[in-house]
Amino acid sequence: MLRHALNQLRVSRRSRPVQEPGGPGRVRLPLPPALSASLGCDAVGVPARYGFRLMSHLPRAGCVFADADQWWWIVPAGSDLDLDWPEQASYVTGACVPGGRPRLIHAPDSRTPYTPPIPLYLMVCQLTGVAPSWAPSGPPRAVSAP
C-alpha cells in the first residue's frame, strides 16, 4: 500500500485540483467520478512528515491527496463537529485546500471516498502528542431518572 502511494506521488500527471472560483489560492480536491460522496466532503491536512505513518496505521483510508508539504484525507462533511483537531492538522470544509498542487495518491477499494474521521483524529492526536478532546455541542443535557 505504501509503495503504491509513493509511486502515485511521483507520477506527475494525475487528476489535477480545480481552482476554486470563490477562494483565491484555494483548490477543490477532485474526487474520482466513480466514488459516491453523498455525505459531502471536507478534508483534513497534516504535514507531509506524518503522511506515510498515518496511512500505514489507519484501518481504512479513503481518498488521500498529497503535495510536498501536506497530505489531505477526505472525510464526511461535518467531521469537525465536537472534535478539537490538533493545531498541526488543518481542517477545511468543502475539500477546498490552500494552494499547492495536491495529487491523488490513494483511492479506496470501496465506492466511498471517506477515511473514517474518528480513527484519523485519534492517530493525528497520537502522532502530534496531543491528548484527544471532545467538546460537546450545545448546553449540557441531563438524563432523567426512571
Q: Strand portion, in percent?
A: 15-25%
Strand line-up in the sheet with most strands? 6-3-5-4-8
Order of helices and strands: HEEEHEEEEEH
Helix tally equals 3
Helix content: 10-25%
Largest sheet: 5 strands, antiparallel
Shape: globular
Q: Which blocks of ≥5 consecutive residues have pLDDT under 50?
A: 5-22
Round the Cα radius of gyration to an integer and report it.
16 Å
Return the structural class.
alpha+beta
Count of distinct strands: 8
* Distance between the first and last residues' Cα: 51 Å
Mean pLDDT across the residues is 82
Give the secondary structure arrangement, pairings included.
Blueprint lengths: L1 H9 L7 E2 L6 E3 L12 E7 L3 H7 L6 E3 L3 E7 L13 E4 L2 E3 L4 E4 L10 H12 L18
Please characterize this protein's 3D structure.
The protein is α+β, with helices and mostly antiparallel strands and 146 residues long. The protein is built from three helices and eight strands, in the order αβββαβββββα. It is globular and about 50 Å long. The relative contact order is 0.25. Mean pLDDT is 82; it is low at 5-22.
